[in-house]
Amino acid sequence: MSYYEIQGGRSLYGTLEVHGAKNSVLPILAACLLVPGQCVLHNCPDLSDVSATLDILRLLGGRAEREGDTVVVDASALIRSSIPEHLMREMRSSVIFLGALLARLGTAELSYPGGCELGPRPIDLHLAALRALGAEILEEQGALCCRRCRKGLQGREICLSIPSVGATENAMLAACGCPGQTTIVGAAQEPEIADLQGFLRAAGAQVTGAGTSTITIQGGGALHPVEYRVMGDRIEAATYLCAAAAARGEVELTGVAPDTLTAVLACLERAGCTLRTGGESISLSSAAPLGGIEPVRTAPYPGFPTDAQAILMAALAGGKGNTLFVENIFDSRYRHVDELRRMGADIQVAGRTAMVSGVGRLHGASLRSTDLRGGAALVVAALGAEGATQVFELRHIKRGYQDLDKNLRTLGADIQEVP
User: Fold this and answer.
1) What's the predicted TM-score (pTM) here?
2) pLDDT tens digits for 189-231?
3) 147-189: per-residue pLDDT in tens?
4) What are the Cα distances from residue 188, in Å, to 25, 232, 380?
5) What is the 3-state secondary structure (H, E, C) of the chain?
6) In degrees rounded to 5, what are phi and psi of residue 297?
7) Do 10 and 34 belong to one domain?
8) Given the residues 116, 176, 242, 267, the one annotated as active site
9) Could you confirm whether 116 is annotated as catalytic?
10) Are residues 109 and 13 in the same domain?
11) How many angstroms from the chain centroid is the CA of residue 398?
């Protein structure tokens, strides 16, 4: 088992290009099932979650190959519509295949998905949306058996009670195979959903409204092969910005749209960082300990992203002043707090709230990554801490970050992956 060895206290300087967005590429890869031909995806990050998705595509009968950051998928000759449990359990987002398989083959069989343990994340909204389109779904012993009803799928209005990203994406993919018009009301508005729409439109689908609360799909038409570039990863960008804020220094990130990170940038600026933004670039300068800011409340986009909560908390824990965090999305997203306390952090948790009192400087410790973003938060904290830190359980981090240690070394960090 490898781990990161990090010597903290070194300021970060330089320029870094952000990889493609994990939360964009996974649903786009599932969308490739709708295209009976070859799709070419550029800016595709090399992550364990992406590798698992490509394994699923191959198992279904598709061809999936990678060369650098380009992935080629050919779903012309699918041979099966079932996904075994061991692949489903590797990641939560594997449930996105449900809508795509239903639209392409009219049937899908899979187990409940796995992923990080962040508390209950029921897929009831996914299933309700598919049932509204005419799917029959049986749930038996942890497995889902989904098929078209005898009358077939038909476009209609779907109302989501909460703006679930996964349910919105699943409904979009299934609706592409439904004759007639589907309207998704109460849709999630995340930039990654707009990116999925961009791919579908490039392939010939009639989809509008992504990025707003109402998405319309005119389904039933044939899709054609497409070449598409995945958007930059806003959460990866937030991680490097928080790392630079914690360790101090000056960094520039390219390949990411600043308007997808408005809530995070506002928090960093209020904490004392200087920020400059361009078309697809963000520069941050931090020369003093971060200060406390008004409460940070996670919320669906365009609110503060839950994926950046632990990362910002880690940066502020080594600063000065108090900051209250309120986690409104997941029940168990403070699992990183105990590890930060091992570094000397003063964080008090009560239910969905966490009060962070900056201690001026954290110290190194031996830590265990608890989940994807919690693991990244430990790295952020270690970069700004005194002394050496070891971060174990890197499998979580590698689900969402490509070459994290290499990229940080590019900026001057002292970090090594030790076998």
Assistant:
1) 0.95
2) 999 999 999 999 999 999 999 999 999 999 999 999 999 999 9
3) 998 888 999 999 999 999 999 999 999 999 999 999 999 999 9
4) 17, 19, 29
5) CCEEEEECCCCEEEEEECCECHHHHHHHHHHHHHCCCEEEEECCCCCHHHHHHHHHHHHCCCEEEEECCEEEEECCCCCCCECCHHHHCCCHHHHHHHHHHHHHHCEEEEECCCCCCCCCCCCHHHHHHHHHCCEEEEEECCEEEEEECCCCCCCCEEECCCCCHHHHHHHHHHHCCCCEEEEEECCCCCHHHHHHHHHHHHCCCEEECECECEEEEEECCCCCCCEEECCECHHHHHHHHHHHHHHCEEEEEECCCHHHCHHHHHHHHHCCCEEEECCCEEEEEECCCCCCCCCEEECCCCCECHHHHHHHHHHHHCCCCEEEEECCCCCCCCCCHHHHHCCCCEEEEECCEEEEECCCCCECCEEECCCHHHHHHHHHHHHHCECEEEEECHHHHCCCCCCHHHHHHHCCCEEEEEC
6) -115, 115
7) no
8) 116
9) yes
10) no
11) 12
Last residue of a domain, one of 208, 229, 250: 229
Location of structure tokens 């308007």 = 259
Same domain, 12 and 26: no
Q: How far is CA 15 from CA 208, 249, 267, 288, 289, in A?
A: 35, 12, 22, 20, 22
Task: Examine the domain organization and report whether 250 and 375 are in the same domain.
Answer: yes
d(CA 188, CA 210): 8
Q: What pLDDT does 88 receive?
A: 83
Q: Are residues 63 and 188 in the same domain?
A: yes
Whether the per-residue pLDDT at 383 is higher than 50: the answer is yes
What's the number of domains the chain is made of? 2
The answer, yes or no, to whether residue 92 has pLDDT greater than 90, is no
Residue 349: strand pairing partners: 354
- In terms of residue numbers, what domain contains 36? 22-229
Are 14 and 28 found together in one domain?
no
